[in-house]
User: Fold this.
Amino acid sequence: MLAQRAEPFDSPDWAYELKWDGIRCLAFAKGGRVELQSRGGHWIGGKFPELEGLAELPDSTVLDGELVVLEGGRPSLAAVRQRLAIRRSLAIRDLARHRPAIFIAFDCLYASGDLMMDSPYRARRPIAEVLVRDLDYPGVIITDCFVGSGLALFKAVCAAGLEGVMAKHLDKPYLPGKRTTWWRKIKPHSP
Assistant:
């Protein structure tokens, strides 16, 4: 599901999250394995062996999230792209140790084989939280979520020099591959 650009706003019908500067990724757990798929449909799990613990999610679970590499405590899109470009297995393992990626979950599409996409975000989000909490794996987290307080989060993100905010309507389903106003991308204006 893809977001449309929007201006900052507050609403009790919306959840607000940090917009992470990384690459969009689906994590598919099946048969004790995990496959990571980029937004472009590429299978990229072999590039991020440090996230193999996602295989411990319940069978037939799919989480939507962002792959992020931190540099100096801040997300670095360039660092994630560098990881994708590496082909040698020795270099991949070295980067996994010294510049590990983090999978930041924000939605649940399937939970133990049960389709969640038809459910509203307010139902999917808590399931994603429980799955990540129960997994308790280093490098897999769930992004913070704030209901109703989009303006305050946007101001904090701008002050910190971060990428922006994602707003998600609490009562809407997940539409795979669709760009919709139910998800909104709120970014600071360029100077």
Notes: Helices lie at 77-85, 89-98, 121-135, 150-160. The radius of gyration is 16 Å. The mean pLDDT is 95. The CA atoms of residues 122 and 170 lie 5 Å apart.
